[in-house]
Amino acid sequence: MSLVDTAVDRYQLCHGIKPMPSDPLLGLSVSFNSDPNRDKIDLGVGVYKDLSGAAPVFKSVKSAEQILWHRETTKAYIPPAGDSDFISAMESLLLGEDHQCLQDQRIKTLQTPGGSCALRIAAEFVWRCNPSATVWLSAPTWVNHQPLLGRIGLPVREYFYYDYQSHQLDFQRMMASLEATSAGDLILLQGCCHNPSGADLSLEQWQHIADFCRDRGLVPLVDIAYQGFAQGLAEDASGLRLLCDQLPEVLITASCSKNFALYRERVGSFSVVAATPKKADQALSQALDIIRGYYFVPAAHGAQVVKTILQDPRLRNCWLSELALVRERIAEVRNLLCSEFREFREIRGFQQPACRDRFAYISQQQGMFSFLGLSPLQVDQLRQQYSIYMATSSRINLSGINPGNINYLVNSVNLVLAAA
Ligand SMILES: Cc1ncc(COP(=O)(O)O)c(C=O)c1O
H helices within 254-312, ranges in order? Predict the structure, then answer.
């Protein structure tokens, strides 16, 4: 009998512990990797892939890392709030160089381990400031919003967002469902490239939301994880900038995972826009106290890379062109997918526009994701019969599509639809 066996009866911590189901999307990647089918397609996890199917390191990132390798002289802790140059660079990226909030010093920002941790800090910040506030999430939203925001204990409710029949954002229903909000509640809005639907708000709709929040005393929490993936850096942040122009309080969570392709380096930010510089400082002191309970100080590397790129005009230009390529490729895939579906369905005799153009909405949407509008059974058939992997909701990562696999995808989806 081992020493461990002799002490087992006195230990209860893991006694009766229940296993949790594994993350469905990560499970999908495991199944994909072990699938021997040479035609297999991975449209699951939200990582940008280039034409060859690789998730590349940007050249701008590699160059910044080279500079850092030569320049770095210490691995001592950085300040708990993060690197001050990274923070200013992020604030300018999010709001633009000359935004009034920056001039008025109404914004305070922390460097965070990814956008995910920024969301967690935001949740605890709200919990401290106003524990009776409800956080309103779009239905549907990114699957991790609920655990990141809700597990602190904040009440979380949903507002209507995406109409699965028309494949569009239904703004009227969205605003009607937000009638149930109360003063002090938070509305989580995605800055651009809505995950999972790809259906974004127009600037006019952002304005409507700003008016609504002001009238009701609601605080927007803008989660911006794909800035630069839709129209451009400034355009993608225009809704966020408008809210910060017009409202006394806005919370912002940002991620550098996608637009710098720094996923595993875990870099992002949490900002509080408050009514006065003094209130913003007080908010920052609360946020700093929160992070003391999580990780004390953030990791340096990812933020150093971002700062180096943003501060060096040559690297910045290189990054801007790499980001433009990503944006253009996603837009191309969207258009190509629509036309391939249309052509296929025309040949098969679908003459009525509603059937022939069933997937036309994909070219109107933005960012890496859209729904194909398939049932969980059809998604399962695609996986079992054709080795095409996507989330059960039929959300696809469009960057997983390339000229080499698009015909197989379109064929397979149509076959599954025809069999229904
Ligand atoms: C909408 C949204 N917000 C936040 C994040 C968090 O990103 P990360 O923690 O990798 O920076 C993601 C990641 O997929 C996302 O899709």
Answer: 277-292, 301-311
